[in-house]
């Protein structure tokens, strides 16, 4: 008898014993409850055998236990036990595969982060914004799009699928807007950083030349001019325009998604939705326009301008 | 290598001196800020003579005799409010116009709400503006009135004058964008990249706060830092604080812009530049600039970061009028109306220009006006650093 067989027989005995014990336990418990049929469906003496005379919970319980008994008998068959044991034996392998897959994804994420973070040090020159230092945000966006966004965009099922979709969309758009906003704020801060670097260099040069201003206000004036110059350069760069455009678009998308979600809540309350109000406003707008045209025509007729 | 010479002792003593001054200033500032402050804007008395939906028409009666026969209608932009023309008593275009004897009206566009989101340029120009102008014409029993537009209100006035030339006697445009195909201004660059459909579909109307944020971003160093540093340095000055608060009140009082108007303005003007090419369609009619045959005075600022000179100066060459004047002042977008230097000449110049063209009897006097020169003359004397680009009336052959 090899080791594998010993393990299988041991597991089978254990399984069979456990099932028998569990069945006996529930049978005993059931007997304690007066007016409950036993597992075979027979009613204790002195109780009406008519179905429906006892409570529905007892009937349901008896039915469940009967199913369990049948199942446990079936499971106690040697062939079934072997099959179960095989399944149990495969479990660690499945778990290992899942863990491996998860670990690979995690390592991929980590690798991406490290790769991107490594680039953060690659800074742009003063008054130049061609290659903005945005790697962190790009990395996060990509990771979010590849790993998390897909979950939120999964098709929803069932009666509430549209509500769930709107909820997920709002969450998704909020995350995307937050990421872009963070990137935008980072870009806006770049001129600050650069202007501080420049002013340091300038002061060092002035110190060497012995031309440092004595008035602290002059330092501020120097810095604000440098800062203004950096902002002007940044704002004209195509990189900034792209970030600005992306931020505005994501903001609009988030607002639209939030609005759609809010409309679901508004419908539950006695509150008209934007959609409903817009329809009304549009009708009102066209009606007013028509009335104004008619009024003008009538006025012209009264003044004799139109025959 | 010689050791760098840093006057640390001088810097430190100056810092200590400044810190002491700042302490005293903060103490005084507390009294100023907690005391009574007159920060009211748009305080000049006026009547509301016409009202339609959210629109109001303000009427300002000159204190003395009316010196210009034809009344003037001022059309402000939909962005920010017309109160800018009457910010403070000593620096008020409104008061200067009244002192010049101009009988004038001003449109208050009000605060658009969500129900106004469907209003288009056509509704503003051929609807509200036309109704207001008809009201003034009827009240004064006149065929034509004088029209003056500011910024986007100037663009509306140009469109109106092209569509209804029979109702406009003289046209004055100030810091008015008509050519949007320029990379001189950041706004022009940014607006080209804007997905306006997405934005308006999501917002309904264009939020005033969002626009304001955009304007602050045009120069954050000055508008978000230096401006407030200036305030801190002067917050013990009662008058300075009052005027500063007035300006803050005006600048952040930003009504939303009706969605469809903003959509059309962005697409047709900023992105397609149709107006200056006489290709813009409003209310099913083409806005042909050649139809603008009345005298045109075109003011703009050399350092305007919102509407740069390039956005304004093409207009006079594109209209059908034979009497056009361009005046470029050495100032920015708002400076034309609020800087004390410009105040001295802006309103008097317009009044003079209108006087020369007001009434048939003065028609023959349309020779090279001395009024075109003062700005230029003043530049030379450096009084207002103002410069007249085209000082004389252009006689088109």
Task: Describe this entry's structure for a reader.
The complex is a heterodimer of chains A (307) and B (397). With 307 residues, chain A is mainly α. Chain A has a domain at 115-271. Chain A has eight helices and no strands. Chain A has helices spanning 3-32, 56-75, 78-119, 135-152, 161-209, 216-236, 238-268, 274-302. In chain A, α3 (78-119) packs antiparallel against α4, α5 packs across α6 and α5 (161-209) runs antiparallel to α7. Chain A is flat and about 100 Å long. The mean pLDDT of chain A is 78. In chain B, the strands form two sheets. In chain B, strands 1, 2, 3, 4, 5, 6, 9, 10, 11 and 12 form a ten-stranded mixed sheet that branches. Chain B has a two-stranded antiparallel sheet with strand order 7-8. Chain B has a single domain, classed as Rossmann fold (3-Layer(aba) Sandwich), CATH 3.40.50.1820. Chain B has helices at 8-34, 93-99, 121-140, 152-163, 186-192, 196-203, 208-217, 220-234, 238-251, 259-271, 309-312, 315-318, 335-338, 340-357, 374-381, and strands at residues 47-52, 55-60, 72-75, 104-108, 145-150, 168-174, 281-282, 285-286, 296-301, 323-329, 386-387, 394-395. In chain B, a hairpin with a 2-residue loop joins β1 (47-52) and β2 (55-60). Chain B is of the alpha/beta class. Chain B has 15 helices and twelve strands. The chains are: A mainly alpha (307), B alpha/beta (397). Chains A and B meet through α5, α6, α7 and α8 of A and α1, α5, α6 and α8 of B.
Give me the CATH superfamily of chain B: Alpha/Beta hydrolase fold, catalytic domain
Q: Which structural class do you get from the secondary structure elements of chain B? A: alpha/beta
**Chains forming the largest contact:** A-B, 41 and 39 residues
Strand content of chain B: 5-15%
Mean pLDDT of chain A: 78
Low-confidence blocks of residues of chain A: none
Task: Report the end-to-end length of chain A measured between terminal Cα atoms.
Answer: 117 Å
Main beta sheet of chain B, described? 10 strands, mixed
Can you count the helices of chain A?
A: 8
């Amino acid at each position: 008898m090899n080791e594998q067989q010993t393990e299988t027989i041991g597991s089978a005995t254990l399984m069979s014993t456990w099932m028998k014990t569990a069945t006996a336990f529930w049978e005993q418990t059931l007997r304690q409850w007066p007016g409950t049929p036993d597992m075979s469906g027979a009613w204790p003496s002195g109780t009406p055998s008519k179905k429906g005379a006892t409570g529905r919970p007892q009937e349901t319980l008896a039915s469940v236990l009967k199913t369990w008994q049948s199942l446990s008998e079936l499971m106690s068959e040697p062939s079934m036990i072997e099959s179960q044991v095989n399944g149990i034996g495969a479990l660690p392998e499945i778990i290992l595969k899942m863990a491996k897959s998860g670990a690979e994804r995690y390592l991929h994420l980590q690798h991406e982060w490290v790769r991107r973070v490594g680039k953060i040090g690659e800074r742009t020159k003063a008054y130049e914004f061609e290659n903005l230092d945005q790697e962190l945000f790009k990395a996060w966006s990509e990771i979010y799009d590849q790993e998390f966004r897909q979950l939120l965009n999964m098709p929803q099922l069932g009666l509430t699928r549209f509500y769930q979709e709107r909820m997920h969309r709002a969450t998704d758009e909020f995350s995307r807007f937050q990421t872009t906003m963070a990137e935008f704020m980072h870009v806006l801060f770049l001129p600050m950083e650069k202007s501080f670097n420049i002013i340091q260099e300038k002061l060092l040069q002035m110190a060497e030349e012995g031309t440092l201003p004595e008035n602290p206000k002059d330092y501020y004036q120097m810095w604000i001019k440098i800062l203004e110059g950096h902002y002007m350069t940044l704002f004209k760069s195509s990189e900034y325009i792209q970030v600005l455009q992306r931020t505005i678009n994501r903001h609009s998308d988030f607002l639209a998604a939030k609005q759609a979600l809010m409309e679901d809540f508004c419908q539950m309350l006695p509150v008209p939705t934007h959609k409903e109000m817009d329809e009304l406003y549009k009708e009102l707008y066209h009606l007013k326009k028509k009335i104004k045209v008619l009024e003008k025509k009538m006025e012209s007729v009264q003044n004799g301008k139109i025959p | 290598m010689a050791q760098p010479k840093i006057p640390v002792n001088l810097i430190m003593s100056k810092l200590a001196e400044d810190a002491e001054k700042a302490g005293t200033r903060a103490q005084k500032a507390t009294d100023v800020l907690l005391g009574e402050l007159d920060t009211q804007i748009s305080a000049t008395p006026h009547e509301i003579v016409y009202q339609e939906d959210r629109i109001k028409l303000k009427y300002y009666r000159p204190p003395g005799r009316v010196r210009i026969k034809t009344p003037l209608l001022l059309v402000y932009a939909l962005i920010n409010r017309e109160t800018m023309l009457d910010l403070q008593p000593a620096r008020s275009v409104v008061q200067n116009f009244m002192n010049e004897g101009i009988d004038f009206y001003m449109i208050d566009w009000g605060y658009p709400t969500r129900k106004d989101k469907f209003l288009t340029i056509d509704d503003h120009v051929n609807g509200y503006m036309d109704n207001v102008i008809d009201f003034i014409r009827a009240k004064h029993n006149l065929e034509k009135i004088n029209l003056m537009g500011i910024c986007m209100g100037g663009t509306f006035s140009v469109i109106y004058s092209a569509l209804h030339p029979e109702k406009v006697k003289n046209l004055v445009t100030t810091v008015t964008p008509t050519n949007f195909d320029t990379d001189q201004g950041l706004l022009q660059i940014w607006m080209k990249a804007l997905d306006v459909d997405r934005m308006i579909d999501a917002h309904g109307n264009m939020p005033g706060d969002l626009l304001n944020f955009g304007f602050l971003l045009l120069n954050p160093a000055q508008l978000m830092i230096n401006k407030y540093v200036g305030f801190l340095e002067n917050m013990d000055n009662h008058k300075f604080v009052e005027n500063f608060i007035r300006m803050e009140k005006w600048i952040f009082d930003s009504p939303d812009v009706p969605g469809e108007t903003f959509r059309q303005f962005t697409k047709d003007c900023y992105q397609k530049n149709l107006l200056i090419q006489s290709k813009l369609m409003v209310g099913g009619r083409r806005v042909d600039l050649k139809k603008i045959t009345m005298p045109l005075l075109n003011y703009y600022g050399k350092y305007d970061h919102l509407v740069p000179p390039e956005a304004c100066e093409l207009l006079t060459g594109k209209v059908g009028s034979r009497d056009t004047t361009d005046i470029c002042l050495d100032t920015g977008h708002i400076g034309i109306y609020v800087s004390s230097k410009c105040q001295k000449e802006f309103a008097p110049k317009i009044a003079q220009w209108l006087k020369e063209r007001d009434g048939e009897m003065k028609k023959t006097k349309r020779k090279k006006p001395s009024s075109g020169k003062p700005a230029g003359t003043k530049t030379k004397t450096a009084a207002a650093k103002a410069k007249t680009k085209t000082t004389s009336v252009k006689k088109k052959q």
